[in-house]
Amino acid sequence: MEDFRDRSKEISGPGRPALSVLTDLVFPRRCPVCDRPVRNTEGLSGALICPECEPLLHRVAAPVCRRCGKPLRSARQDLCGDCRVRQHVYDRGSAVFTYHSAAGSLFRFKYGSRQEYGSYFGKCMALRLRETAWLFRELPDFLVPVPLSDRKMRKRGYNQAEILAREMARYTKIPVRTDVLRRVEDTLPMKNMDVSARQNNLKKAFHASGNDVELNSIMLIDDIYTTGATIDACALALYRKGARRVCFMTLAVGEDNHAEF
Ligand SMILES: [Zn+2]
Ligand SMILES: [Zn+2]
Fold it and tell me: Of the bound ligands, which one is closest to the alpha carbon of residue 56?
């Protein structure tokens, strides 16, 4: 805890290199919500989102599930319906936005070459990590983006999870490691699979390597958390290599599918 307090002071924001300020003037940064160039209301400090668009992204507010971070309907609950139905491999996790409010932005970020949204998203995730320090109890030793298969990486040209992790790292100073987890198999499209089929399919998909995993606390980074099957599969591979603790942080989180009405 002492460690977190010392290092959390650093989550205030890096200086902006002169070149990126210049780039913003020539190629204005697009707003993650409306996709229009952001008006530079803050002078040269570089706004990342329109002030009027920011409230349209809904932040996950307390009470949240203490395992997966999904919003809860009642503060009397401890776990969401999904986590009561299913045991998870990872230790715990947290997210910034509700999926329904961020879906359009996420789609363009992931499939529409809007990597520039990552600056705003990564900053939000770094702040969320500080806000949810009570949940994680310690800062991770490193951030590990959920990897894409080689084929998907070639097709898309970038891994949106890695962009998020690298932007988070600028604020938190926690190192990013992309060499400890590999997606070894191009898994079948999972859209029409049920949860257990997804889990079985994914279990074989991730492979952890390297001595650095052992005894370390790792935070997986991804864009969306829905069933947790992907995060669990990554966590399983990392725990098998001796990771001490595997948590996660995502930009958005889906709804509780087993909520009690
Ligand atoms: Zn906007
Ligand atoms: Zn949960």
Answer: 1
